[in-house]
User: Fold these one by one.
Assistant:
Number 1:
Amino acid sequence: TYAPKLILLDISDINCIQDVAKEILNCYGCVDILINNASMKVKGAVQSISLQLDKKIMDANYFGPITLTKAILPTMISRRTGHIVVVNSIQGKIGIPFRAAYAASKHAAVGFFDCLRAEMEEFDISVSTVNPTFICSYHRQPAPGNWEASIWK
């Protein structure tokens, strides 16, 4: 048995994910199950959401999980075992008004992990996508002019 180790990671900061994955692998040698369960969302009309915020949502919900998965995947492949889980959203299957950036990032994740599932079959690595309906998330009230405060985490 391994003692638990807390490792903080901002999944939207793509540049630090490789180092965190390396730290995890150095500590434990391998990962048996990777659960990607971080997310950010924002509610607003397409024309009112900045491209900067669209990119931040895409980093957290798409590029973050795939970057972490790609960092952990080689050890799973070499061991020919493992399970990758992505907790996504029903909005990865259907779009609803005022959630364009979020839905787009979740659609992208569904596409990526569906393809990965097919590719990993030969290595006996399972890939699961969980798409729950609406859940209650932590939310901060936005300060005027502060778009980051309007993000749901």
Number 2:
Amino acid sequence: VFQFIVKHECHFINGTEKVRFLHRHFYNRQEFVTFDSDVGRFEGFTFLGEKWAQFWNSDPKIMENQRTAVDWLCRHNYPIVTPFSVERR
């Protein structure tokens, strides 16, 4: 059985002051390409992942979308997530 998974993660440090966004791709339980908002670009971990990262990094529309995801995805959804994550500790 082959499995392809894409994960989007928002890591909140000190509320919304420091937010890290990760966009990760897995195939057969192996991560092959990821976008890290702290790095600001895609990074490949396999031969195919390097090719995908190279293609995505060269597209300005994709890069603008990924770089702004911290605001439109993470910070936008923080009030929704807060009652289930922060206030339960």
Number 3:
Amino acid sequence: MTGGFTIALSFALQFQKMGSFRRPRPRFMSSPVLSDLPRFHASRQALHLSSNSAWNSVQTAVINVFKGGGLQNNELYTLNENIRRLLKSELGSFITDYFQNQLLAKGLLFIEEKVKLCEGKYSEDRIDVLSEIWDHYFTETLPTLQAIFYPVQGQELTIRQIALLGFRDLVLLKVKLEEILPLVQTKLPASIVQMLLILQSVHEPTGPSEAYLQLEELVKQVVSPYLGLCEDHSFSGSTCLL
């Protein structure tokens, strides 16, 4: 018994001299977390500045497109890379919302101003101006916006759909086209019919809105026969047609 106790005591003393298998606790001042804080803040600040720079370039390009400008050589590649960088940042989940509520709304103001300039003119002149505005928006502005925001995928509404809904709500429905169409005595431009049908093809995920139903009334004036979405446009107890 005594010999066994002596051997156990000797082994314990040797184990104590060897030390524990756990890593020794670092001293407070030499903690790698604290020592890395300045570098961490610097990298975070650099990332923030990079995100701001990327987003500013996207904003500038989008507003320039709405003003009628185009993209420079290789600018689209740079903008796509900036969008991809933003998608990986803290701003990633807000890109679509910011485009819809800020950039698009601001850009469409330039188009709305062009429409206002023709107020008071003859109905045919106002229709011609609206036709030209739509042609440029559909063939130039819209494809460029889609190209810039190409990396933004998998959203409930695509950039194309958001841009078309914006044009419907912020431009077309402010023209009071329902009052102009009955006064037009010449043949209606094909682009006006195209505009109404394309805008009508875009549906909000929440169901037909008041703006959509207003648009449908305009389509009825240019397409005959026409089967609308709802016979009764009241939201309570409306009779919808397939």
